[in-house]
Specification:
mainly beta, 88 residues, OB fold (Dihydrolipoamide Acetyltransferase, E2P)
């Protein structure tokens, strides 16, 4: 018998831009990705906004940040700030 190997996957990490920092300990991050249209084969930009937990209120509007998926923190927050990549 071979020993069972437990493989845990890493949570997804995304890079995005802060579009709102008006809430306390919460920022809104817009992540843009490019996908090819299945029929017309044109490259299209898709955007999605995430509510992100920012414990220290360190990210400001316009900053590029890195976020990671986590357990549900509130009704809409499922992402947590890892680090600020660049200050704008």
């Amino acid at each position: 018998m071979s020993p069972t190997v437990s493989r845990t996957s890493r949570p997804p990490v995304r890079d995005g831009v802060v579009v709102s920092d008006k809430m306390q300990k919460t920022i809104i991050v817009e992540v843009t990705r490019q996908v090819r249209h299945p029929v017309y084969q044109k490259v299209v930009r898709k955007k999605i906004k995430y509510a992100v937990h920012d414990e220290k209120n360190e990210a400001k509007m316009g900053n590029k940040v890195q976020i990671v998926q986590t357990r549900p923190l509130s009704k809409t927050k499922r992402w947590r700030l890892i680090k600020v990549l660049s200050q704008e």
